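Here is the promised in-class demo. Please do not try to memorize the tokens; focus on the logic of going from shape to residues.
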């Protein structure tokens, strides 16, 4: 029987609801260990608590620690695969960070729950079970970090949280899930084509994320640059355009040495240098903005933090986003 290690980091999957007030909060004992007896028919499962945090409390320092632990547990030849339980709010960021840190190899599955453990219809147990089955599956080998949730398997690069409360919250815009899970089997239907790998020991978190909206100007960017930001991800409008009043801020940021990456605030599609007007994508590329290859804002921020910690070579960073 394959050995699967579950690393717990907290999140709703490890929380309880106070039934009198409806408030959901962390508990001190490891709730997930109570599921171990029912999981034993699928794999030889061990559990290790790493953190017990709501995922909005996960920081860059936690990501560094997690990467060290994940690398060392994967190096243990007795372990066939890892499952990481995590709060759903920032799950996609941790999953994508780990994907950028690990060469494709043994399965690493990230999962969580939308309903706490004592709520009727709790989704934690089934998400955990499906993750363990996927981590023990030969087919999951070499596919990069995966997110298993609500009977679906998603690639860490594309998956995002799309709903505040629905258990079908995790989706992969434009590409869809790469597989699905039912009672009898695990079905992979797509193979991720690309895998980027930029291993680092420490992550520099000084990268901002700013969403564009009608009528904005440069003031927030000016403040961020004055504050010593090293990188800035701009969630631009449509195919990668900003109001003209934002252009001076972007230009000054680039001149000050800030690496500026453009993504779109649209849910689907890529940013491109199509529009040639003041603040249009073509204009922003001319002044030095980097275009991302379809990542959302929070993932582009993770990738830029990783790349700025990996190299000082701007051409390399540009290529890593635009290739
Ligand atoms: N707020 C919770 C967290 O991210 C949500 C969840 O786990 O579903 O920790």
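The designed amino acids, position by position:
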């Amino acid at each position: 029987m394959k050995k699967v290690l579950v690393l717990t980091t907290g999140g709703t999957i490890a929380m309880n609801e106070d039934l009198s007030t409806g408030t959901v909060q962390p508990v001190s004992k490891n709730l997930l260990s109570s599921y171990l007896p029912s999981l034993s028919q699928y794999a030889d499962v061990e559990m290790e608590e790493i953190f017990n945090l709501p995922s909005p409390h996960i920081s860059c320092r936690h990501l560094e620690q997690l990467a060290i632990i994940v690398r060392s547990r994967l190096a243990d030849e007795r372990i066939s695969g890892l499952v990481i339980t995590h709060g759903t709010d920032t799950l996609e960021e941790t999953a994508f960070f780990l994907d950028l840190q690990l060469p494709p190899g043994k399965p690493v599955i990230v999962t969580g729950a939308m309903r706490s453990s004592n709520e009727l219809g709790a989704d934690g147990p089934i998400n955990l079970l499906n993750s363990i089955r996927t981590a023990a599956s030969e087919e999951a080998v070499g596919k990069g970090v995966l997110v298993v949730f609500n009977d679906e398997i998603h690639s860490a690069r594309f998956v995002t949280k799309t709903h505040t409360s629905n258990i079908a919250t995790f989706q992969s815009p434009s590409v869809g899930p790469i597989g699905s899970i039912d009672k009898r089997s695990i079905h992979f239907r797509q193979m991720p084509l690309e895998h980027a790998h930029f291993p680092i020991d420490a992550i520099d978190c000084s990268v901002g994320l700013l969403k564009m909206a009608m009528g904005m100007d440069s003031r927030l960017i000016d403040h961020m640059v004055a504050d010593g930001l090293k990188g800035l991800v701009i969630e631009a409008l449509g195919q990668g355009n900003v109001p003209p009043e934002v252009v001076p801020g972007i230009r000054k940021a680039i001149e000050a040495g800030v690496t500026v990456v453009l993504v779109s605030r649209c849910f689907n599609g890529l940013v491109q240098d199509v529009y040639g007007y003041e603040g249009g994508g073509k204009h922003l590329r001319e002044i030095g903005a980097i275009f991302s290859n379809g990542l959302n804002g929070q993932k582009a921020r993770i990738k830029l933090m990783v790349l700025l910690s990996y190299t000082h070579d701007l051409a390399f960073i540009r290529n890593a986003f635009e290739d």
